[in-house]
Amino acid sequence: MSEYSQFTANLLEWFTIHSRDLPWRRTYDPYHVWVSEIMLQQTRMDRVVAYFSRWIVRFPTINILADAAEDEVLRLWEGLGYYSRARNLHKTARILCENGCHLPEDYENLLALPGIGPYTAGAIMSIAYNRCYPAVDANVERVFSRYFDLASPVKEKKNKSFILAKLKKMQPDDQCRFFNQALMELGALICLPATPVCHKCPVAAFCLSRQRGTTPNRPLLQPKKKTIRIDMATGIVFRKGKILIQKRLSDDVWANLWEFPGGRIKQGETPEQAVIREFFEETNLHINVTKKITTVQHSYMHYRVTLHGFFCEISDGKNKKPALHAAQENRWVAIDELKKFAFPAGHRKLIDYLLEDIQVDRLKAEG
Fold first, then answer.
1. Residue 12 forms part of a structural domain
2. Averaged pLDDT, 245-253
3. Active site (catalytic) residues
């Protein structure tokens, strides 16, 4: 038996014993595999299981997803971030339902669908259809960078090609579904980024970085992007017991999500000055800041956002209609209705805080 054959045999035996019980593994339904793979992009497994289960209850089939309103799709996705993934799921479901409501069993046809790239197409082909296609995620890259002791950044083109070539030699023709998942599982449970559990690894005997003592230095990573810090301010205005919200433009950051009016704080401005200026620029409403609510922080990609929230009141006529200079739609909604709309993470944190604020009932009444 060759080294690679032994690698594969050991890995599959380990996976049979130690694989996690994940909901999409119970049937390998192509729709379930597709949804799970999209959710798992840039999201931890423990969070995805809960989101996946809730999603499948509401959208159990592709056609039900296709028939749903985008607002509901985004609301169910809220908290996973990268909302373009949810929009692409929705868009693809509608495309699929023009011709049978099922995922293609062809790699190239999968690649032609919105939001499905080489990794996702390979994952669907291998996991859902048990075809021998590669599916190289960060876990697989880490396993192979250590196994072959790759001394240059794993994301380099030459290393990506090297990993793909090795995968083709290792994949068993009749068990590609389990082989690809086993590699990912090995990276997730054993070959961890900071503290690999090498003594429990089923392929440790062949691992070059373990033999050479380079495991802590593998994989080599590309330099991280510099963190960009953004300070923002937003205002919550009550009128007749309802709050003003607006829907972001479809070509903007956080496209089609709802928010409270506001924006970035300019140099030299206080948060209070910024929210007054932004509110007028976006809605044509003059407001006064009455009280600070709280400050929340959240992150997306390499951005770190600090959001200052304020209670405000309209100072130039309570019945004046808000303009739409930075949004496609606005509404006055009851505070209890906010859970029906999808908001960016910072605004949702502000809403959660607001719901616990004992002043809300008074402000609703005064509004």
1. no
2. 91
3. 37
